[in-house]
Amino acid sequence: MASPPLKPPVLKAFLGAAREYLASDEPSDPPAAPPPLSDRLASLSTAYLALICLELAQRGVLVKSGAPFEGAGDVGSMFDAVTSTAGKALFDADTTSLPKPLMAACSAVMAMAAERCADILGSVITETTSVKLEDLPANLLFLREHADIKSSYESAKRRCSEVEDGRLSSLLDLSQSLRGPKVANPDSPPPKSGEILLHLRRYRSILLQLASGQYLRAAVEFSADDQPAMWKRCLDAVLKLNSTLQIVARYENGGNS
């Protein structure tokens, strides 16, 4: 049975809550001392959860109980929504009656979530002189192992694979990639702090690619030619991405930032 069409006021309220959440999570003034790494990783986790909820919103599915900006944070409900939504196309101007400005906002708020993740990770990189692999979560979407949640996650991944939903599958894969690729030989020495930080810089560049792509979608598909705001946001994200990639290249060549 098909789900009922998403009503504009409902989506508008959802996006407003998401935007407010993402803005409130960002400190207005630099703290006197950097917050603990665990606090920043918790913020990164909830922002990444918001990112996936906003991907689902672009398919007409609102995860009320799973969205951190709805005050619940039921990750299992979000994974169930991924499982039931996988394979459903993103809405566009030809397949929905939603107003174009609202569709542009949906893409843009997802871009904001990706940027927020990148900014949090940037603070981890610049304010952390040493990091160990065990300091990082195995999965951003559940910071502590929980059998039921992990089972829901695996079910969502399987469904995405079955229907070849590359977008959702990639987002789920990225959530468990913060530690980098798994080492084939268990007897290999753990990566050094510098190697981990280099991986985090690469990870940050992926988040910025996500952000710029979503701003570009909002600009190209849903914005009027005389409304350059989305193009500017896209350009800002691309400039951030370019700066990050330059730093990654210097580190890969044995230099530093």
In short:
With 257 residues, the chain is mostly helical. It has helices at 8-24, 37-57, 75-85, 100-127, 147-162, 166-175, 193-222, 229-252.
Secondary structure blueprint with pairings:
Elements: H1 8-24, H2 37-57, H3 75-85, H4 100-127, H5 147-162, H6 166-175, H7 193-222, H8 229-252
Features of this protein?
mainly alpha
- Say how many strands there are: 0
Basic shape? globular
Low-confidence stretches: none
The helix content is: 55-70%
Overall average pLDDT? 86
Protein architecture, described:
With 257 residues, this protein is mainly α. It has eight helices and no strands. It has helices at residues 8-24, 37-57, 75-85, 100-127, 147-162, 166-175, 193-222, 229-252. It is globular and about 55 Å long. The mean pLDDT is 86.
